[in-house]
Design goal:
The chain is of the alpha/beta class. The protein is 46% helix and 20% strand. The strands form two sheets. Strands 2-7-1-8-9 form a five-stranded parallel beta sheet, with helices on both faces. The chain binds adenosine-5'-diphosphate (ADP) and guanosine-5'-monophosphate.
Length: 211
Amino acid sequence: MSTVFIISAPSGSGKSTLVKRLMEKDLDRGESRLQFSVSFTTRAPREGEVEGEHYCFISVKEFQRLRDADELLESAEVFGNYYGTSRAILRKAEAAGQDLILDIDVQGAAQLKQRLDQAVSIFILPPSRQVLESRLRNRSSDSDEVIQRRLEEASNEIEEYGKYDYLLINDNLDASFEQLRGIILAERCRTKRALDQVKKIVDSFATEVKR
Ligand code: ADP
Ligand code: 5GP
């Protein structure tokens, strides 16, 4: 059974950095049971972003077609662009027995929690507004105007933190990474999620008794 991990955070909190580490580190001891959900977006690629790896970059028309065909698990408009999660990606992860990690905004997270009540949601908070601003400035990927908009939006997004299953304050990066890893590994041990594996063990005992 696949577990869906939803990660949301105000822009600049360190979500991409943490998710990237999660995908690079050998979290699964070589089994690679974690798959990143590559979203559709109508925004233009940033420098260094790779089609199919960071996002699938599509036109507004194509986005509307996917949404109308019910090919999106959730969708939202963020900073004037459309974003959406592919339904096909979840189907593929389920078929391959992989867990899925989603980097989506608070609107998309709320939609998904309604549809998939077993999904695990994690909200990443920056240590303060000042730290968030300096991270956005140091990242140097946005203009002053865009940074200002992202900070204003952060105030709205942060109000949603109470709806998430887990909160992670991204102060020290190494500590935050360990917490994120801990959440994922612990969630996989929940009785309801481990049923397939456990059933085999329990059945082996039943066979032994019959002999
Ligand atoms: P997001 O994906 O949430 O928009 P990023 O992962 O791009 O944010 O991080 C924003 C900036 O902050 C990047 O330059 C990143 O290197 C830096 N950063 C992320 N986490 C930390 C941390 N714990 N301490 C210091 N800098 C961080
Ligand atoms: P960015 O353009 O900076 O990569 O992302 C902007 C925001 O869109 C972030 O909050 C990110 O989590 C969110 N986002 C990315 N993909 C999706 C998606 O598929 N659905 C939704 N709802 N939000 C997304």
